[in-house]
Amino acid sequence: MPTYNGAEYFDACLDGLLAQGLRDIEVLVGDDLSTDDTLEIARRRGDPRLRILPFQTRAGMSRNWSRCIAEARGKYVALVAQDDLVLPQWGERLVQLLESHPEADLAFGRRKFGIEDDRSRATIGEFFETKYPAILARFYARIETVIPSEVMIDAALEHRFEVNLIGEPSFTMFRRDHPATREGYHPEMKQLIDWEFAARFFLVGPILHCPEELGTYRLHAAGSSIGNSPLDLQHREYRLLMDSVLSRSSSRLSEVQATFLRERRSERLDAISAQVQELLAHARIRDSERAQLLAHARVLEVERSHLRGHANTLESEREQLLAHVRTLEVEREHLRGHVQTLEKILRKIHGMQTYRFLCRIKDLFGVRKAR
Known about the structure:
Blueprint: E1 2-3, H1 7-18, E2 27-31, H2 38-45, E3 50-54, H3 61-71, E4 76-77, E5 85-86, H4 90-100, E6 106-115, H5 118-142, E7 146-147, H6 149-158, E8 172-175, H7 179-183, H8 193-202, E9 207-219, H9 224-227, H10 231-248, H11 255-365
Parallel strand pairs: 1-2, 2-3, 6-9
Antiparallel strand pairs: 4-8, 5-9, 6-8, 7-9
Helix pairs in contact: 1-2, 8-10, 10-11
């Protein structure tokens, strides 16, 4: 089991593997420097069938897959994804097939698809719920337990090698001594990596089919099927797949078949080229829009500078007005002091006039005393 930050689904996957009826089974956990609780979940099990390898370097998906199968010690090897589910009979069925048919080096079983979230359903739900099951139903109807190489090649060619008819690694098992096992997985592939690996088996010999459902392939937002779905990546992966198939199957493919695949590969390359040109055109448009935005930004900066200058002028005028107001306030205080002084003088004047008036009245009545 190659693992990387798979704690959310890992426990359930381990449950299925450790519930196998096989007596002689080793579950190897090869961890690619997880930062969550993936390793702790494995260690808590304390099961002697578990062999835990916490690798010290980050390898990425394909290289971690390869170093996991390189560490395997059993006669048969299966690479089970950390988020898939296998049924208790999974191992027994595939081992029995390989034991019964020594002429074949790979066996695969059927599986269900479990879509775990709305994002996954919106992205690939239609394919995995409708289109892919219909393709597989037609394929299953034409094969038996032993699938000769030419039958498998014809079935793959019917879909131009664009559809993985065998399925995900979790539901396949292969012999450890096969050259493909020793070579490992394609280091540059992600989306079609399992199909390319399986093709190395059926291009040179028969493979085996188990008609039972052996588990569930779970699709979720953090899974590789979602992350590897962009069209440009699919075109690139198909080119790598065709390079591998054409280089390994010269003795198995007729000239017509090889020409068909080369033409299809060329079509995909043309599609990649067209996408690149479209991206470049979009980039030029974005560059033009960016230049316009920069020019507009420069105009806005000039206007901003003008506004800042105007604001500084207004601030200066405001300071002058405030200074004038303060001057007027001082003058007002001075005037108030003058008014108060005048009021005192007026009160004194008013008092003297009253005294003189009384004196005159006394004089009139002859009551004022002589001084």
